[in-house]
Amino acid sequence: xxxxxxxxxxxxxxxxxxxxxxxxxxxxxxxxxxxxxxxxxxxxxxxxxxxxxxxxxxxxxxxxxxxxxxxxxxxxxxxxxxxxxxxxxxxxxxxxxxxxxxxxxxxxxxxxxxxxxxxxxxxxxxxxxxxxxxxxxxxxxxxxxxxxxxxxxxxxxxxxxxxxxxxxxxxxxxxxxxxxxxxxxxxxxxxxxxxxxxxxxxxxxxxxxxxxxxxxxxxxxxxxxxxxxxxxxxxxxxxxxxxxxxxxxxxxxxxxxxxxxxxxxxxxxxxxxxxxxxxxxxxxxxxxxxxxxxxxxxxxxxxxxxxxxxxxxxxxxxxxxxxxxxxxxxxxxxxxxxxxxxxxxxxx
Length: 348
Hints:
Blueprint: E1 3-7, H1 12-36, H2 43-68, H3 76-92, H4 97-119, H5 124-144, H6 146-149, E2 155-156, H7 170-193, H8 196-206, H9 208-213, H10 218-244, E3 246-247, H11 254-267, H12 272-292, H13 297-311, H14 315-331, E4 343-347
Antiparallel strand pairs: 1-4, 2-3
C-alpha cells in the first residue's frame, strides 16, 4: 500500500529572525538596567561595578589573543599597568582626559608589537612563556623610575569628577563614563571579530598550517592580535585608574595576569558575556569569600577553575547558553514552529 504524507520543516529564516529579535530585546533590557544601577546603589557598589567593567575590557583583550588566535598570554598585567601609569601621568600634569585615554592604548599597542615580533614564531604555551617575562621585567623597572611612577609607593592622582551640570555624584559619573567606554570597546571587538580578522584568527587557532595554505599571513595576524590585546589592556588600566585614583606596582604583577586568564576560562572564552562574568568573578567573589574565610580567595579561584574545566568546559557563559537553548526548545512545541511549504514523501 502506498500513501503520501506531508513533511513539515521549520523555516530557518524565521527562526533566525526570532533569535535576533530576542537578542535585541535582551540587549536593550540589559543596557537599561546597567544605566539605572548607579542611581540606586551605594558609592561602594558603584566602585565595584566600575572595576568589573574595567577588568572586563582587559579580559576581552586576552580573549582576542587566547580565545581567537589561540596564543596564551601572561603579560596582560604589564599593559594594564602601563595604561594606568600613562593616565596617572596625564592627570598629574593637567592633560585632557581624552589625551590619556588615547595615548594609553597607542603606547601599549606599540609595546605589544615590539614584544610580539620575536615571539610570534612560537606557538601556544611557548608563546605564553615569552609573555611571562613582561611583568617580571616591568615591575622592577616601575620601582626604579620613581620620578615617573612613584616607585614602590605608587601614584595617587585626582582623576575625573562629575560636572556640576550633570547633578551626579562622582561615583555615578565615573561608572557611567567607564560603562560607555567599555561598551564602545566591546562593540569594536565584536565588529572586528565578526569579519575577516576574526575568521583568520579562528583558522590560525585551529591550524597554522591550514591558515598558511590558504594565503593567510599567520605571523602578521598574530602580531595584530597581540597589539589588540595590549591596547585593550591599556584602556582597561586607564579606566581602572579613573575609578580608583591610585596606581601601584601591584597592578603590574604576574599574579594579576594569571587571575585575569583564570577569570576568562571561568567566564568562558570567545564570549563577551564570559568576559563580563569572569571580571565579576575576579572582583566580587573575593569580597564574599573573605568574609567567610579571610585570605583564601586564591584557593577558591583554583577550586572554581578545576570545577569549570572538569564540569563546564565552555565556562559559565557556555553553560548559560546551553541552558537557554534547551529552555527555548522545550517551550516551543513542534506545531508552533513556522513551516515552509509542505514536501510530499511516498511511504510504501
